[in-house]
Amino acid sequence: MQLFINTYGTYVHVKDEMFEVRVPVEKEPGNYNKHHFAAKKVSSILMPKSAALSTDAIILALKFNVDILFVDFDGHPLGRVWHSKLGSTTRIRKMQLQASLNETGLKWVKDWVITKMQNQAEFISDLKKHRSSMNDFLDDKKEKIEALIVSLNLLQAENTAEVAETIRGLEGTSGRLYFETISHVLPEMYRFNGRSSRPAKDPYNAFLNYAYGILYGKIEKVLIIAGIDPYLGFLHRDDYNQLSMVFDFIEPYRIYSDTVVFRLFTAKKVRNTHTDTITNGITLNKDGKELLVNSFNKYFDVDTIRYKGRNQTRSNSIQMDAHAFANSLIKKSDSQTGYQTLKI
In the list 38, 39, 268, 304, which could disulfide-bond 311, CB 3.0-4.6 Å? Predict the structure, then answer.
């Protein structure tokens, strides 16, 4: 269970070894609704601005390995409270560094980016089921993305750095084709002109940015647990304080956030009242965040998929992939995870 603190003035503390969340009652100063959650059932707590957290709550979270994540206005992680232990052996990080400089890193980058592009192509193909009048348009977009996948598959080099710009170019072109398609099939009132972030220029991108922000936090956590350094990436640049490996590893799973947002809009659950206008853009307000987070958490942590012979939540499947990645680096497995197009 993930606790999402979404009301101004909320206070999280401890009572009887449980998290007590005190939510102020609107228009009743000094009155609170109190909600209690057993620590062993909580996986993480998302804390935006304008909420408070007691040191007792932090200690209880550390005791039960509950991740406390502080997020900004669009859901992107600002920092987290987490125990100081490494997720696994330091040998994983040593081998991660070596892989970043040789063909092993390149193989993983190609695997992640190709899976992302395959997911995009498959998503477009699924759109044809109820949009027969758009088949020619959808087939054209899918075929162009598939051609980019072929080009990426054919890339050969001794390390990622030699072909990084080419990979980014192919990935970027695929993304433009994909989001052009998404906009085209949406109800007219929701259509948008390409990706925009921080701030978003339209409601669809505002929802998508927040969904990606939550996913960034999830990916960082699974990497830490698996013993992977979230800052040491293979494709994304090693800029100051940049979670390069998070940005690398997230690519196959972006389709999950895409799906949550797309379903909200195609079901016409998004209203004008879910977003606010800010300087140069659009942002989700309290109601919009609640709508998205509830749908996101159900999709990731309640609904299950068939994965590697078992029914798993999507969150668990991502953690399994992170462990498989870590094990491959230290040669506990002779093969990579071998991503397949994710079933959404």
Answer: 304
